[in-house]
C-alpha cells in the first residue's frame, strides 16, 4: 500500500453545497473541460456546434436534487469552488435559462436542463461518472470522462497522480503512523504538519494561515445557519431547525441538556447552509459538512479552546480522515453515509480529544469508537436532496463524536480492544457488501419509504 500523500487542503476544501461529489467535483469538471476546449486549434473551436454532458450513476439518480447541472454550468462559466460566493448556484435555478459559453472566438448557448441524466447502472470505473463531449455535427472534437470520487476530488480517464513531494514520515495505516510517533518522539499534529509541508512545499506559516481560514469559513457557516429561518430550497419544504434549537439552548444557558442542544444547533446550522447550496467546507464531504464546524464552534465558544488548539485538532482530525479515505472511501456512492457522516464523526471525535490535550492513543480510541458506531450507515437521501436524513444525521454525528470522546477520555486506554485500522477495514468491507440501492441513488431506505407514505 503506497503512503498517504493527500494534502490537508484537499480533504478540507471550501465550496458550495449541498454535495461535494455532486457540486464541487462537477464544478471543477466543468471548469476543466472549458479550459481544454480553449486549448483546441482555432478551426475546431469555430466548427463546434454542440456541447454534450452526460451524468451516470448517483449523479444521474440524485444530481437534479443535489444541484449537479447548476454546478457544472457554473464551472463552465468560470467559477471555482474555493473562490465562488455563497449564492453562486442560485442564478442557475431555472434549468431552461441559457447562458453563452465562451469557447475562445465563439460562443455556444447552454442551459442546465440540457445536461443528460443517463444510466444509473453502468460499467464505468466509478459510480459518479460524467462524460463531456464537444461536437461538430456527428464528429466528436473533444471528449473527457470524469469521475467525482467523493469529497470534491476529481479524476478522469487517463488521470495520473501529480508530482508532489514525498512525506517525511510515510504511513498508510494507523499502526505505521503510531510507529513514527514513538520512534521520533513526535506529537500527531507535528507529524501531519511536517508531511504537509513536504508534500505541498508550503511553509508552516502558510499551513497555519490556511487552517485559520478553514476555521473562519466553518464558523461563518454556523453563524449564518443559527440566524437563518424559513424553508430550505426544493420540493420537500423542509423547515430550518438550527435557529430554534440554538434559542432553546441559550434559554437553558447552555447547561445540561442545553449544552447538547447547542452542539446539535451548530451542526444543524452548517448542514442547513450546505443544503441551501451556500459556502461550506468539505469535512470530509459537503454531505457531512455540519459535524466538524459544530464541534469547532462548541470547542471555541463553550470549552475555551484556543486557535492553536483548534489548528492542532484539525491536523489530528485530518490524519484520521486521510486513513479512512486511503483505506476505504469518503464517498457515499461507494460506501454509503458511513464514509461521509461516519468519517466526519470519527474525525470530530479525534479533534475534540486532541484539542483537549490528549495524546494519540486516546485520540485514536475516540476516533475508533465513533466510526464503529456508524458502520453500515446507508446513504438514502429523500428525493435526492441533502436534507432528509442528512441534516439531522450531521447533528447526530456531532453528538456521537462528543460521546466517543467522553468514553475514550474517561476509561483506561487499555480497555480498547478494536483499533482504528480494524474499524476502517470493516467500513471498507461493509461498503463493498452494501447494495447499490443504499448508496446515494435514492432507490431504497428512507428515500423509498418517504415516497410511499
TrEMBL record:
Its cofactor is [4Fe-4S] cluster. Gene3D superfamilies: D-3-phosphoglycerate dehydrogenase, domain 3 (3.30.1330.90). Its EC number is 4.3.1.17. Pathway: Carbohydrate biosynthesis; gluconeogenesis. It comes from the Bacteria. GO terms for molecular function: 4 iron, 4 sulfur cluster binding; L-serine ammonia-lyase activity; metal ion binding. Residues 7-157 form the Serine dehydratase beta chain domain. Belongs to the iron-sulfur dependent L-serine dehydratase family. This is L-serine dehydratase. It comes from Pseudodesulfovibrio indicus. The lineage of its organism: Bacteria, Pseudomonadati, Thermodesulfobacteriota, Desulfovibrionia, Desulfovibrionales.
